[in-house]
Amino acid sequence: xxxxxxxxxxxxxxxxxxxxxxxxxxxxxxxxxxxxxxxxxxxxxxxxxxxxxxxxxxxxxxxxxxxxxxxxxxxxxxxxxxxxxxxxxxxxxxxxxxxxxxxxxxxxxxxxxxxxxxxxxxxxxxxxxxxxxxxxxxxxxxxxxxxxxxxxxxxxxxxxxxxxxxxxxxxxxxxxxxxxxxxxxxxxxxxxxxxxxxxxxxxxxxxxxxxxxxxxxxxxxxxxxxxxxxxxxxxxxxxxxxxxxxxxxxxxxxxxxxxxxxxxxxxxxxxxxxxxxxxxxxxxxxxxxxxxxxxxxxxxxxxxxxxxxxxxxxxxxxxxxxxxxxxxxxxxxxxxxxxxxxxxxxxxxxxxxxxxxxxxxxxxxxxxxxxxxxxxxxxxxxxxxxxxxxxxxxxxxxxxxxxxxxxxxxxxxxxxxxxxxxxxxxxxxxxxxxxxxxxxxxxxxxxxxxxxxxxxxxxxxxxxxxxxxxxxxxxxxxxxxxxxxxxxxxxxxxxxxxxxxxxxxxxxxxxxxxxxxxxxxxxxxxxxxxxxxxxxxxxxxxxxxxxxxxxxxxxxxxxxxxxxxxxxxxxxxxxxxxxxxxxxxxxxxxxxxxxxxxxxxxxxxxxxxxx
Length: 611
Prior knowledge:
The protein is α+β, with helices and mostly antiparallel strands. It has three domains: 76-217, 3-Layer(aba) Sandwich (D-Maltodextrin-Binding Protein, domain 2), CATH 3.40.190.10; 238-318 and 579-607, Periplasmic binding protein-like II (D-Maltodextrin-Binding Protein, domain 2, 3-Layer(aba) Sandwich), CATH 3.40.190.10; 322-406 and 413-576, Dipeptide-binding Protein, Domain 3 (Dipeptide-binding Protein, domain 3), CATH 3.10.105.10. It is 26% helix and 21% strand. The strands form nine sheets. The protein has a five-stranded mixed sheet. A four-stranded antiparallel sheet has the order 1-2-6-5, with no helix packed on it. The two termini are 27 Å apart.
């Protein structure tokens, strides 16, 4: 649960915004205080705080959180090791998102943003009062250092900021980013979400007397400019973050009513059942439940019945996020290169039976890479979407034009048998045949066999029925669950046959699509192109999305790309819910109305124990 919150701040790709400038009252060099992609900004210059916060929320108390896995670094930059959850509390970005606007952000480290009409560059003016925890000012040199190092050491940022040629200091507090192409409206936005690191600290000497190395993992508490500091930790097990009394930005309008807990403690568990028992016992204060069966059956303990633990189902966080959760075959493996093989595997997944027996019908089957949003394709392509696809007609599957995508439907023995027969037929078209009880490639003699790599035993109950169905048609699929560190390392190096993947999409997809599906990221270790997609048509569609001149053109390109991704059967779509399920002990409180597009946890929550 807590991992979602930390990565929300750490992973730039989940916050892609589009910009509409709002001039400040005393405009200088066309600097603006914030940006929005839909109409004008809600908040005007001089606003006191976001509407969804309690500006009088008390400061104090302790928040005890849990997460699964372990950690071995506080360094958020290189794609190495396991970053400690909550590390985002220590760091800041140039801008901060507003959770009651769909796509809007306001200055945090930067007080102003400016860019020319052709969007060939973007300039950020840092706040004079912005300081690191050691009292030194945040400088343009820090911003330049952060961009250079993230692009150099982290594949996600290398793809995300591919079109940012360089950053230059253009004033005492100004830094300008130069782009290699004009008209990429998203670049100023995502630069605002760049995490800024202290150049002087990283170029200094560590507590061990040796020069620090930003390319390596480290358990030395990192210097940041954010509201919290790392106060104590036990390697791989616990971390305590403490609110800084000397935090420079505590009175900023974008921070009022937020960062309310004096201490935020994380405990890391190796087993999700043990983690849940810790919550039941009151050792953990907040939990976001992802297992529908547990939500339906296990939340009946005394603290629930007497009101000490509160349960809520809220749609807020999912209102502006499209989700693709899927089993993802690795196309770098020969057995998955034929799309008919990948389609056949989907016919072996009986979602209806799984949803009924394991999830109490709490889930819905995903049928789009932008599932749950207005960006999801449906029916047959029309209008501008059709024109875009026709321009790529020779590079996309013909069914894009003739057959709306739909997942196989089962739920009873007869429907499942029919689906498995269709799967056998697709395998036959791809050059396989049943020999005894094995599905064998007729040219190579190799049986269809693969391993499904999982990060947690709790996933096994959802995947095992799929494995059993595949065995009925001679496919040897095996489950392998490994610890968090091994899983992370294997995924980063694409050392797997198939994994359980989740991609989240904002309502303004852009540069991160290159990291998800672009050819350049297919063999770039550490990217999120888990499937290994390298498709010229998809590359062209990604460019259309990024450089779309208006929203209508962008949406048409997004839906066209969605169709092409689906028609190539790159993944076996799984399921998701439209609501977040949360439970928390009544020592915690939140505003009566949560932010429209977020649970706001823990940013705008507070402790009733605070003095």
